[in-house]
Specification:
The structure holds two protein chains of two kinds. Helix content of chain A is about 75%, strand content about 0%. Chain A is built from 25 helices and two strands. The two termini of chain A are about 55 Å apart. By secondary structure, chain B is of the alpha+beta class. In chain B, strand 8, helix 5 and strand 9 form a beta-alpha-beta unit. In chain B, helix 3 crosses helix 4. The chains are: A mainly alpha, B alpha+beta. The interface between A and B is medium-sized, with 25 and 45 residues.
Chain lengths: ~575, ~350
C-alpha cells in the first residue's frame, strides 16, 4: 500500500519579454490562431460544419444574390409597388395575428379551465383546421360567398335584390378576406400553445385572486392572461410568420404581398436578382418574428411551478354558460373545418369521375416520392449532425446545428429562389465544363429537375428533424455513452447500438412530420417543378386557381387527410401528458 | 504492483487548473474513495482515469498498461475499466441479460451466455434476466450495472457517486453487498463521493480531495482521528478549536481545564508552547453552572438525546446531552481521555 501524496509545486515560468509587435508578428499570430483552430477541429468537426454550411447555402446564396445581383426590375418595383407590397404584407400579418388571437385565446381558456358538455370532443376537434391548407378554405369560401355563390343567390332571391348595387356584402377577395381565411386555419397554433400555458399555471394564483374578490372573468384578464403573455406573444409571432409565408391564398385573392411579388418577379420576368432582393426583405422580417418567438419561448413562465400546481383550476360552467361555450366552439369548428371539408367532400362525390381521370395517382406518387426522399435525407443529416454534437459538444458544432435549422423560418417561395441561385450556378458550370471538352451540356440537370424541389424541402424541413432528434438526445444520459465506450462500443457502434434504438421513436415521428409537411408544400414546388411535372398541391392549386376546384377536390381531400396525421400524433401526445 | 498508478495528473478546464499534480496508487483488491466537497475535482479524476477527458497531462498506469503519458492518451475502450454511475446507466432498450452481455460481443455466444449467467448468479438476479431496467428497483439496477462492468473483467471499477440515488433505507445494505462482491472477486475500485458515511462504509482508504489536490489519504478511522490538515479535520466533522498550552508529554492545559493527550505526534519537546487542538463533539459534555456565561441557545430533541448548540468565542458547536439545557448557563467539560485531536501551532500565543 502506498500513500498518495499531492501538492502543487511552484513552477518557475519564464515570462515572455515585452516586445514590439510588428505587422508581421500580428500576421503570424493570426495564422497561428487559424491553424490552432483547425487543429482543434477534427475531421468529424469539419464534416459537421460542412453539412451545416451546405444546408444553409440557399440562405447565403440568397443574400449574396440580393447584394451582388443586378435585379433589373427591382429599381422599378422599389419606385412603384414595393411600398404597397410591404404595407399589404404588414396589414395581412398583423390582421391574421389579431384575428387568430381573438379566436385562439378564448378557446384555450375554455378548454383548459372550464368544464362543460362536449369539451372532451372540442379539445381535439379544434385542432383540425391545422390540417386544412388556407388556400383550400379560401377556395371553398369564395365559391360559397362570391356574387355567384349559393349564399348571395339565396339572399337576392329572398330580398328581391337585382344587382350588386342593391346591397352590401363582404368581399371575400380582399386583404380582409385573406386575413380571415388564414386566421381560421392558423388559430390552432395559439390555441395549443396558450392552452398549454394555462394548464401549467399555478392554480394558487387564481385562487388567491378569487379570495381577493375577483370574478372568474376578471381573474382571466388580470391573472391568467398576464401570466401566459410569453406563450401568447410566441404563438402570435408563429402565426404571423406562417401568414407572411403564405402564397396561395393571397395570390388567389389577388392581394399583392411580398410572397406574390417574389413569385411574379421570377416566373413573370425571370429576374433572379430582384426576386432575391424581395426575398431578403421577407427573410429579415421572418428573422425578426423568429427572434420574438424564441425570446418569449425561452423565458420561464411566471407562476408556473410544476411542484406547486398539482391542484388544477377548474370552473364548472352553468347551463347558460355551457351553451354559449358550446356554440362558440361549434361555430369556429364549423366555419374553419366542417364547411370547407363538407364542400370538398361534396365536390369529390359529384365530380368523382373527372377527378379520378386526371392522373391524380401520378401526382400523388410524385408528392410521395419527393416527401419520402426529403424526410429520409433530413432525418439522416439531422442524426449525423446531432451525433457529432453529442460526441464533440463544442460551440462550433452547436453553431452548425443552429445554422442547419435556419431553413424553417424561410417561406417556400423564398426558399425556392435560394435553391435556384446555387443550382443554376452549378448547372451553368457543368454545361460550360462539358462544352469545354467538346461535349453537349446536360442542360438544367439540377435546377430543372425534382432535385431542386427535394433540396428546397430538405433545407426547409430539416429543422423539424433537428428539433426532435436534439430533444431525444437530451433525454439520453451522457453516462450511457461513457459506459458504452468503456465496453469498447464507441463511434459508429455507439450510434447504432445505443443512440439509434433510443431515439428511434422520435426520429420516426420527425420523419413522418417532414413527410407530411413536404406532401403539403406548395410554393417551392410551384416555382421549382420541372416542365409538365405536378405534385398533389400544384395540381390542386392549378385547378382551383382556374375556378375548377371541384375537379381537384379528390386531391384536396387527400392533402387534408395527410395533414390529419400529425394532428393525430399531437392529440396522442397531449392525451399521454 | 499497483492496479492504478497516477503520477502528477493535471487537468485544466478553459485554462483553469482543476487537478494539480495529483498522485494516487491503488493496490489489487483495494477500494479507495475520492472524497471531498463539490467542485473539488473528484469526478474529473475519475474521467481522466477512464479516458473521457482530452486536456490532461501526467502519467496513468492501469495494471501493466500505460494509458496516459506525454505522448499517449489511450481511448476509453482500450483502458479496460468499468464505470458505474449514480443513474446506473443501464441501456433502457435492452433486457438485463442484454445489458450484461453488452460488452461481451467479442466472445462466442455460449461463452457469453455462460458469463452472463455467472454474473447474474453473483447478485442473485438470475430470475430477472428477461426484465427491462425500468422493471427493477434502484438497488437491483445498480447491482446489474456493477456486474455488467465486472463481466468485462476490468482492471478497476470506477464508481461516480454510485449509491446516491439509492433509498437511504437500503443504501448501506447494498454498499455492504457490493463491497463483499468486489472483495470476493479481488476487484479494485475507485469510488467518488461527497458522502462521508458511504465512503467510510465502502472503502479501505479514503483520499480527501480539495481544490484539485489530495490533502490526506488514509483509512477512515485514522482520517477522522488523526487529520493532518485543518481542512481534513473540519471536513470530516464539526468540532471546536481550543487554544491549549503543552504541560507535559501527555497533558495540555486550557481554559476548559486539564486535557489528557493521547495523540500520535509526540509533544514532549513542546512543553510550554501553545497549540490549537480540534475537539469533536463527543469529546465534550455540558454541566449546569450558574456562574458561567456560556448559554445553550438552541436545542433539538432527536430521540435518544438532545442536540444542544452553544456559542463559545465566536464558535458554534452542537453537543449531545441527556437532559435539556435550553436557555441555561453551562460549563463545557472535556473528556479526560482525548485521544483524537488535531494539533496545530497557532501563529501567536
Amino acid at each position: 500500500m502506498s500513500l498518495g501524496i499531492s501538492g502543487s509545486e511552484a513552477v518557475a515560468e519564464t515570462l515572455p519579454q515585452p516586445q514590439k509587435i510588428t505587422e508581421h508578428a500580428k500576421g503570424s499570430r493570426l495564422a497561428a490562431l487559424v491553424v490552432s483552430i483547425f487543429r482543434t477541429l477534427s475531421k468529424v468537426h469539419l464534416g459537421g460544419l460542412l453539412l451545416a454550411v451546405l444546408l444553409s447555402t440557399p440562405l447565403f446564396a440568397l443574400f449574396y444574390e440580393a447584394i451582388v445581383g443586378e435585379g433589373e426590375s427591382f429599381e422599378y418595383i422599389k419606385q412603384t409597388v414595393l411600398g404597397d407590397y410591404i404595407v399589404n404584407t404588414l396589414i395581412l400579418v398583423f390582421s391574421v395575428g389579431f384575428l387568430a388571437l381573438l379566436i385562439g385565446v378564448p378557446l384555450a381558456w375554455l378548454m383548459s379551465v372550464c368544464e362543460f358538455k362536449g369539451k372532451s370532443f372540442f379539445k381535439w376537434a379544434l385542432v383540425l383546421p391545422l390540417a386544412m391548407p388556407a388556400y383550400l378554405v379560401a377556395y371553398t369560401y369564395t365559391d360559397l360567398l362570391d356574387y355567384a355563390g349559393p349564399i348571395q343567390i339565396a339572399l337576392r332571391s329572398w330580398f328581391g335584390w337585382q344587382s350588386p348595387n342593391d346591397y352590401w356584402f363582404f368581399d371575400i377577395r380582399s386583404i380582409e378576406g385573406a386575413s380571415l381565411m388564414l386566421a381560421l386555419v392558423l388559430y390552432p397554433y395559439i390555441y395549443l400553445m396558450v392552452r398549454a400555458s394555462f394548464l401549467e399555471q399555478n392554480a394558487a394564483l387564481t385562487h388567491a385572486a378569487r379570495t381577493l374578490g375577483q370574478s372568474p372573468l376578471r381573474c382571466f384578464f388580470k391573472v391568467s392572461l398576464p401570466v401566459a403573455r410569453n406563450a401568447i406573444i410566441a404563438s402570435v409571432a408563429l402565426v404571423m410568420m406562417e401568414s407572411m409565408a403564405d402564397f396561395a391564398t393571397v395570390h388567389y385573392f389577388a392581394v399583392s404581398t411580398l410572397t406574390t411579388a417574389v413569385y411574379d418577379t421570377w416566373l413573370g420576368h425571370y429576374d433572379l436578382g430582384s426576386a432575391a432582393k424581395l426575398s431578403s426583405i421577407m427573410v429579415l422580417g421572418m428573422f425578426m418574428l423568429l427572434y420574438v418567438e424564441r425570446l418569449q419561448n425561452g423565458k420561464k413562465q411566471t407562476g408556473a411551478d410544476a411542484k406547486v400546481s398539482q391542484q388544477k383550476l377548474m370552473y364548472q360552467l352553468s347551463t347558460k354558460q355551457s351553451i354559449i361555450a358550446f356554440c362558440f366552439c361549434s361555430l369556429i369548428l364549423i366555419i374553419a373545418f366542417v364547411v370547407p371539408a363538407a364542400v370538398l367532400v361534396g365536390y369529390a362525390l359529384d365530380y368523382y369521375a373527372e377527378s379520378w381521370s386526371t392522373g391524380i395517382m401520378t401526382y400523388a406518387f410524385n408528392s410521395i416520392l419527393i416527401a419520402a426522399i426529403a424526410a429520409i435525407a433530413a432525418l439522416a443529416l439531422s442524426v449525423v449532425l446531432n451525433f457529432i454534437l453529442r460526441c464533440r459538444p463544442y460551440p462550433a458544432q452547436k453553431f452548425s446545428l443552429k445554422l442547419a435549422s435556419t431553413g424553417y423560418a424561410i417561406p417556400g417561395t423564398v426558399m425556392a429562389i435560394g435553391v435556384l441561385i446555387p443550382l443554376s450556378f452549378l448547372d451553368t458550370s457543368i454545361n460550360e465544363i462539358a462544352e469545354s471538352f467538346g461535349m453537349q451540356g446536360p442542360g438544367l440537370l439540377l435546377s430543372g429537375s425534382i432535385i431542386a424541389i427535394i433540396l428546397a424541402h430538405l433545407v426547409r424541413f430539416v429543422a423539424i428533424a433537428n428539433k426532435s432528434v436534439e430533444a431525444s438526445y437530451m433525454k439520453i444520459s451522457p453516462s450511457l455513452d461513457m459506459v458504452s465506450k468503456t465496453m469498447g462500443q464507441g463511434g459508429v457502434k455507439l450510434l447504432s447500438k445505443v443512440h439509434l434504438p433510443l431515439i428511434r421513436k422520435s426520429a420516426l415521428v420527425a420523419s413522418l412530420l417532414i413527410f407530411v409537411e413536404s406532401m403539403k408544400e406548395l410554393p417551392a414546388a410551384l416555382l421549382l417543378r420541372p416542365f409538365d411535372f405536378q405534385t398533389l398541391p400544384t395540381y390542386v392549386y392549378q385547378f382551383a386557381s382556374d375556378e375548377q376546384l371541384e375537379i381537384a377536390a379528390l386531391g384536396a381531400i387527400l392533402i387534408v387527410l395527410v395533414g390529419l396525421v400529425p394532428l393525430i400524433l399531437l392529440n396522442r401526445s397531449i392525451d399521454s401528458h | 504492483m499497483s492496479v492504478l498508478n497516477i503520477q502528477n495528473l493535471e487537468v485544466s478546464y478553459q485554462n483553469q487548473p482543476v487537478i494539480k499534480k495529483l498522485n494516487l496508487q491503488i493496490e489489487p483488491g483495494e477500494i479507495v474513495a475520492l472524497f471531498g466537497p463539490s467542485g473539488g475535482g473528484k469526478s474529473t479524476v475519475l474521467k481522466a482515469v477512464a479516458g473521457l477527458l482530452e486536456d490532461v497531462s501526467g502519467t496513468v498506469n492501469i495494471g501493466d498498461t500505460l494509458v496516459l503519458s506525454d505522448k499517449l492518451n489511450l481511448p476509453t475502450e482500450k483502458r479496460n475499466v468499468g464505470l458505474i454511475f449514480q443513474d446506473y446507466a443501464l441501456f433502457p432498450h435492452l433486457t438485463v441479460e442484454e445489458n450484461v452481455a453488452f460488452g461481451l460481443g467479442h466472445l462466442p455466444k455460449e461463452e457469453r451466455l455462460e458469463r452472463v449467467t455467472e454474473m447474474l448468479a453473483l447478485i442473485k438476479l438470475s430470475s430477472s434476466r428477461g426484465k427491462y431496467p425500468h422493471q427493477l428497483s434502484g438497488g437491483q439496477q445498480q447491482r446489474i450495472a456493477i456486474v455488467r462492468a465486472l463481466a468485462c473483467k476490468p482492471n478497476i471499477l470506477l464508481f461516480d457517486e454510485a449509491f446516491s440515488n439509492i433509498d437511504p433505507q437500503f443504501r448501506f445494505e447494498l454498499i455492504a453487498d457490493i463491497r463483499t462482491l468486489l472483495k470476493d472477486q479481488n476487484t479494485s475500485a475507485l469510488f467518488v463521493t461527497h458522502n462521508q458515511d458511504e465512503a467510510f462504509a465502502f472503502c479501505d482508504r479514503i483520499a480527501v480531495l480539495n481544490e484539485g489536490q489530495i490533502e490526506q489519504i488514509d483509512t477512515a478511522e485514522r482520517l477522522f482521528n488523526y487529520p493532518k490538515t485543518r481542512f481534513v479535520a473540519e471536513f470530516l466533522g464539526e468540532g471546536l478549536w481550543l487554544r491549549t498550552q503543552v504541560a507535559s508529554a501527555h497533558r495540555l492545559s486550557s481554559e476548559l481545564g486539564e486535557i489528557a493527550y493521547c495523540g500520535e505526534s509526540s509533544i514532549e519537546s513542546m512543553v510550554g508552547q501553545y497549540v490549537d487542538i480540534y475537539l469533536r463533539p463527543h469529546h465534550l459534555r455540558l454541566e449546569f453552572s450558574l456562574d458561567s456565561k456560556i448559554k445553550v441557545t438552541k436545542e433539538r430533541f432527536v430521540g435518544q438525546y438532545f442536540e444542544s448548540t452553544i456559542e463559545w468565542f465566536g464558535q458554534s458547536i452542537k453537543v449531545r446531552t441527556v437532559y435539556s439545557f435550553l436557555d441555561k448557563t453551562v460549563k463545557i467539560k472535556v473528556d479526560t481521555n482525548v485521544s483524537a485531536v488535531f494539533l496545530e501551532h497557532p501563529s501567536a500565543p
